[in-house]
Automatic annotation (TrEMBL):
Known pathway: Amino-acid biosynthesis; L-isoleucine biosynthesis; L-isoleucine from 2-oxobutanoate: step 1/4; Amino-acid biosynthesis; L-valine biosynthesis; L-valine from pyruvate: step 1/4
Cofactors demanded by this protein: Mg(2+); thiamine diphosphate
Gene name of this polypeptide: ilvB-2
GO BP term (any one): L-valine biosynthetic process
PANTHER family according to UniProt: ACETOLACTATE SYNTHASE CATALYTIC SUBUNIT, MITOCHONDRIAL, THIAMINE PYROPHOSPHATE ENZYMES
Domain Thiamine pyrophosphate enzyme TPP-binding: 383-529
Protein name per its UniProtKB record: Acetolactate synthase
Recorded catalytic activity of this chain's protein: 2 pyruvate + H(+) = (2S)-2-acetolactate + CO2
Annotated ranges, domain Thiamine pyrophosphate enzyme N-terminal TPP-binding: 3-120
EC identifiers of the protein: 2.2.1.6
Entry-linked InterPro entries: Acetolactate_synth_lsu (IPR012846), AHAS_TPP (IPR039368), DHS-like_NAD/FAD-binding_dom (IPR029035), THDP-binding (IPR029061), Thiamin_PyroP_enz_cen_dom (IPR012000), Thiamin_PyroP_enz_TPP-bd_dom (IPR012001), TPP_enz (IPR045229), TPP_enzyme_TPP-bd (IPR011766)
Keyword list, A-Z: Amino-acid biosynthesis, Branched-chain amino acid biosynthesis, Magnesium, Metal-binding, Thiamine pyrophosphate, Transferase
Family assignment from sequence similarity: Belongs to the TPP enzyme family.
Amino acid sequence: MEMTGAQILMETLLEQGTDVIFGYPGGTVLDLYEQIYRNEGRIRHVLPSHEQGGIHAADGYARATGKTGVVLATSGPGATNLVTGIATAYLDSIPLVIITGNVPTTLIGQDNFQEVDVFSLTYGIVKHSYRVARVEELAEDIREAYAIAASGRPGPVLIDIPKDVQQKKTRFTPKPPVEIPKIAGEYTEKEIAQAVKLMEKAKRPCIYCGGGVIMADAGEEIMELSRRLDAPICHSLMGVDAVPTDFPASLGMSGMHGQYASTKAIAEADLLIAVGARFSDRAVGDKQKYAAKAKIIHIEIDPAEVDKSITVDLPLIGDAKEILGKILAAVEGGKKEKWQAEIAEMRAFGRMHATDYSGKLTPDAIIDAVSRVMPKDTPIVTDVGQHQMWVAQRYPFAQPRTFLTSGGLGTMGFGMGAANGACIGTGRKTVLFTGDGSFAMNFNELGTAVTEGLPVIVVLMDNGVLGMVRQLQRFFSNGHYSQTTTNRKTDFVAFARAMGAEGYRATTTEEMADAMQKAKAAKGPVVIACEIDREDMVYPMVPSNQSIDEMILQGGR
């Protein structure tokens, strides 16, 4: 049947199983919004307070569900407001389809009202881009965009649709949803045999999990390999929830703010099995000293990541679940009593140097109050800063896709939008840990949570400073705290109530526990303003470009 481009877009989105669009209307997408109006019963639309909040919501939706998130914006400032969110998704490999309107094709390049070359602007932060020149190409471009976003190493895909393409008509033929193409592995059976030989020979093996383990749904295989090899499991920031925190072999996060035992185990291992990890600078530190005693096996779906940061001994390119399955079919392993005794000493030393906070209400107590009452499948979202590291270090995660954070870009202001999206995608009460600095960047999205009736609990750690930057200034700028003391007098409880949410203040562990009980029972969004001491620091801490086992421990030692 013949349809307009706007109708084709709507039908193709529905064809691909899209159930929600996060979008903000404007002049060049009026035709698309007409179709949203006509299809209210078929698809949900969520109106954010700002386009950046909208794309973070689509991102949170994708992280929590594993499905592709969809965001829609008009041309010009609507499109440019998406850029930070696109980069956030790109660096964390999150599947998004980003739809922008544009001026008519005949006017492109003439600097018309709200015209921006978003195609070129986002070229380096998308997996692929389309500028749809003909309405006849639109349906297939959308289908391809979904396939590209979700296949292999996922990522954001941009579709820029000029206004006249939305209005022109052509014949539309419905098709089944695209099957996500499986990327063929580049490994050989000989390389699998080499990996097995290295694993069986190792006396101090260590497994390092990145976010790719979660994307490949390979957590069970990781745990079985750990059992088979008697190997500890360490995690990158993006892989924190790859296996349950209470799995006996899990040592937690390694790297710049990682747990002592996790970081030390990598330094002492004679074999490092890295799975779905890209060896970022914050995870690695001094590249020349990283895992210096170890042979390195790198299981990775994206060949561009192999030998990019760390030179490895054996790359295995392909799907992590598939490759681990082949390894498990052959590897025998065995107990490593001496290695386990060393690991036990590392754990004990780490506990001995655990952070002793100075404030009345400590970050530990706040995290404990939340984890005690929230179900294990609760999506836990963080913004970026000290609170992000405290949560990554200490929250007891029980299943994958429950820890949502901006890892690669480190986007302050990510949290509120992402929490909204996670809540919508899962239908579950969602917790956001944030700081007063991050929350101030996008706290307008609390209004979206109120409008949509979303049961999001905002746990706001308020210390009146930009804590992470201030911590760096303390150690590396001689305590010269330049522009990191905010001196804001914001009453976040009054703010929450003014926005239509519930608001509570916690200054003691008792008040925090009481506030969490009220928040858990609430039907809509709640803000808990937790007053913490600005001298609370994140330990351990590895100075930039130093070996990751050269840690500053509790108290700056």
